[in-house]
Amino acid sequence: MIALASRNVNKSLLIFAMLSVATLLGACDRTAEPISRQTMTALSPRLQPLFEKTRTVCFGRFVMEIPATATVVYGPAEVETPIEYFKGHGGRVAEHLNERLAEIEKEREFLLKDDLVTLPLFGKVIDGANPGQKIVFGSKNQIGYTIYSFVPVGKDLFIQHLNSVLPQHDRIATINKVAGQLKLRSESEIPPGSGTCIEGGFVPLDLKYERVTVGVRLKEFPDVHFSVDVHKNQERLAESGRLELMREQAKDDAEKRGHGSLFARIKILRKADRQVDAWKAIELLTRTPAHDEDTETHEFRLQSLGAVDDLLQPHLDVRLDSGVKNDRRASVKPSITDEEAIALWDKLTNTIKVRPPVGKQKTAAELPKTPLTTLIATGGICPQSGWWQCTEGDNIEGGRRKHFAAGTSMPHAILVATPNLWQKLVGNQSRHKVATVWQLVEYETGSVEHSLEVGGDTLPPSAVAERSGLPDHAVTKDAPPTIT
Across the beta sheet with 353-354, what order do the strands follow? Predict the structure, then answer.
């Protein structure tokens, strides 16, 4: 996100803790209610003129409508690597390169002779794939390289960078791949086809990792800051980032600081489930009261975890804050009322959608598949939905061949021991978990209701259900070890 600094760390933690508790507990027991477009708050007479003229802005693979008078502020962006835009600096590559080389010489003071042996490219400058592109190697931790790539495109400059790149990891191909496809883009330009919009540019590639953050500043209400952060998920969703999971920690923080009365004064304006384009999201809208030197402030947040490895459904985080001055929240009295804040929030969030492409953009299902025979150990993340077979023997509960969805953790195998005489008499059988390696043997095709081969016999799904072995809680109650 385009972060807003607080007056001090303690006060920021306090407000965050109380806000999280207030919104997540929902006044102790309130559950989120779904909200439709039809029930959204209408614009007040003060807000209506803002939207008489609007314009479309592009960020990542998405667009939204904002007032024509609003200012767009781009924050951190990544297209495989972090990337920054410098308007009008296309002819100043040497200047930026020399500044970085001066920093590298300071870094050299912390290197030992052995470090220079393991980092032979330290201080070196090479040409990139683009005309005029320069790539320079430094090191900020004496373990791996810090790589900067200066890419002039027309009159403008893009700077890519990576930290802690181990010498055995070649990232130059990745840097050059993006640099070679960078195209300039004006703020009003909405490019056709598949690709991602960043500040000043467009990258017409389907990438493994993308992140774009963008802020909207309103000329008529300068203390109101609206921002959107989208970043593509990898093989798993950021479950730890769920708003609900912050509940207990936030509650503990508030209680330790003894601010129960302030907590009770936080007003929940709305807590609801929202559908924003393809995202199923949760929104939490609150007004935090004035406290000490902090003024009251609106703190709105909408979040969706998105989908696994899907370019068109990344993690989504949207925020609105009022009372902001010099990027400090709760610095001035909010210029909008509760009703106006909600109406503005509804109007802006309702316009966020996938950029209409001329050529269809690819979803994860249409991107190249993980090769058959790929091996993933217990505890690893499944990269491809399909049928996987473990490397253990035939005496596996439920059979060696199982279906896993992309993004799930690969489980242990459940070995079924040959019963002894007593176990046969009492009808009991010994089972235990073992770490194993799973091999991708077949892609998912439509329904997963296929028959499975178990111990040489072909069983229909109903029979497989009867042979399901230990209940899930018995098999998965212990977290699997991390296997690299």
Answer: 54-59, 62-67, 353-354
